[in-house]
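Encode chain A's predicted structure.
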Amino acid sequence: MGSNFPVRVQSMTNTSTLDTVASIDQATRIIDAGGELVRFTAQGVREAGNLQFIRKGLFEKGYRQPVSADIHFNPNAAEVAAQYVEKVRINPGNFVDAARTFLKLEYTDDEYQQEIEKIRNRLLPLLSICKTDHTALRIGVNHGSLSDRIMSRYGNSAPGMVESCMEFLRICSEADFHDVVISIKASNTLMMVQTVRLLVSTMHQEGMNYPLHLGVTEAGDGEDGRIKSAVGIGALLVDGIGDTIRVSLSEDPEKEIPVAKKLIDHIMKRAGHALITAKADPRFNPYEYHRRDTSIVNNIGSAYPPLVMASEKVLGVLQPDLIANELSVFTVEQLPELNSKPDEVKFLMLQYGDLNEQLIEQLRKRVNVVVLLSSHHPNAIGEMRAFFHTLMIHNCSIPVFLHRVYQESDLETFQVQAAADLGALFLDGFGDGIFLENALLLPSQVVDTAFAILQATRVRVSKTEYISCPGCGRTLFDLQTTLARIKAATGHLVGLKIGVMGCIVNGPGEMADADFGYVGAGKGRVSLYHHYQCVEKNIPEEEAVEKLLALINQYNVLNNNRFETLFFLKNESIALFEVKRSDLPETTDPSRRYQWFLVDKKQQSLSPLTFVSMKNEEEHYERVFEQGTLQFDAFQGTFESKGNKSFLLFRNPKSTLEAWMLMKVAAFFNAN
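Encoded structure for chain A:
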C-alpha cells in the first residue's frame, strides 16, 4: 500500500465479531467481490481476542487478504487485536480522551501538553506490540468524533481534525514507528476534501509522507451514497491523493466493492495523459471554499444556485431549469453572431483550447452570454480547472456551465463517473450550472444525477439529505430496513438533514451536521437527537421511527404550509426574507402575520428584524428596520446595516426555507 502500488479497495463487516462463522462468511463475500482488506469492529477485549479465530478460519478457506481491527474507546482491545491482525485502526478522538460531552473546556498550554503526554504514555505500548508483531496502524480521524479537548481549542474545523491526527503521527514518528496509514473522514464532502488536502500539506511541512485511506463516512445508500462517495473520494484521487479507499454504503458491504473499483478505474484512465499547460491563479485557496465571482445573466451566476440543464423535458419529480433545445447555443466559430438579439441569453460552447487573449477580452465585454464548458481531454477535470484559472487570472467573470457527454448504459457507472468528473469542480467553487448528456439512459435518470451531484457538493439542495452509516458489529438494529422506513416517511422534506447512525461512536457528533438523528443506544434501543442534543433516550426500536416523525413534527418542519415566503434575497454571506403566517386569519394584526428575518449564513443564525417604515413604488421597494435599511426590486437589492456595512443581495422568488430556518421562524412566532 502506498508509493507506486495500486490504490487498494477495502470494506468492513457488519456482523458481530463474536459470531465467528457469520464474520468469516461475510468477509469471504467481500473478498470474492474484489475487496483487498477486510475490517472488523472490536469494541472490547473479547471481540479483539476472537479475531484470531476469524483470521484462522479465513486462512483455512484459502483467504490470505489482510484483516484490520476497528477500535474505539478501548486501548486494551487495540493491544490484543494487534497480536492477531495485519492492521489496527484507532480513533484519536476517543483512544485516550473521554467520550464527547460537547462541553467547552479550557486548558492552559501546560495543561494541554499534559494531555498530549497522556496520549503518548497510552500509545507507546501499542506501538511496541505493533513493532513486535509487524502490525500496521491506521490513525483514523472522524469529523463526528473529535474530542472535547480538540473542539475546545480548534472548534469543529479542518485544522482541528488535522491536529487531532498530527498529535498521534508525531508520537509515532518520534518512536520510529512508520507502518502507519492515515484517514480523515466526514459525511460533508467539502469538509472531507479540504481537510485531507490540509493534512497532506501539514505532513509535507513536517517531513512526513504516510499513505492515506479515503472515504466519505455516513454517505448513505443508493444513488446518494454512490454519488457522495464518488464526489469526495474522486476529488482527492484526481489530486493524486489516496492509497486505499472505502465506499461506505448503508447496504450489504460486498456491494461497496464494485462501486470503489469503478471509481478507481475511471480515475486511473487519465494516467499518463498529455500535459495541460496552464497557470494557477495565486488567489485560489484549496483549503477554503469560495465560489468564483461572476456576473449575473438572468438567474445564472454570482449568488444564484447552480442550475440544471437537460437535453429535453423529463418525466420525474426533479425538473431541469433549462432545456438545451429551447436555448440559443453558439459555437466559437459563430462568435460574431452573438451580437444578434442583444437582450436574449446566449450560450457559447467552449473548450480550454479555444481560449486566447483576444477571445478572453471579448468574453469580458459580453453581456447575456454564458459559457457552456466541455472537454475531450483524458483529464477533463484538469483541463476544466485550467479554463477557470485562466479566466480568474484575466479577471473575466462570465458565468460557466459544466457540460459532459457520456455513453454509458449502466446507471451506477454513469453516476460514479459524472460525480467524480464534475464534483471536484463544484467543491472548488467552479461552475454556475451543470449539463449532463447520456443517450443510453432515461432523461430523468440523467437529470436526477445532476441534481444529486449539486446536493453532494453542497451547492444546491433539492431533496432530503440522509447521513447514514454503513453499520458494523456495534449496530444493534436493522439499519437498512430502518433507513428505508425513515426515507419513505420524510422524503418530501426538502432541505432537511436526518442522521441514521448505528451506534454512539460517531452518532452524536454527526448530529452537528444533521437536523435530527436516530442513533443506536443498545440492543433494540434507540436515542433521538436534535442536532447535538439527545431529546429521547433508549426508546424501543419498534417505536423509534414514529417518535422521530413526531419529533420532527414538534419542530414544525412537517407543516411547511404554516409559512409563506413573500420575498427572499440573499448573497453568499446573508439572506433576508419576509414570511406570512398562513395559519392566522386575514383580520389578524399585520405585525403578527408578517415578519422579516435576517440570516447570517456563516454563523447559521437567524434574527427577526423590527419595522420602522416601509415604502412601495411601482417597481422599487424600501423597508427600514431598526437594524438597517433594505432597498430592492424584482431582481436584486441592497441592505445597509446600522454599522454602515452594505450587502448586495439577489432576489430568489423560488427559494424555500431550510429546515433549521423553519424551526427558528416557528420558535419566534410561538414566543410572540
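The CA atoms of residues 203 and 209 lie 6 Å apart.
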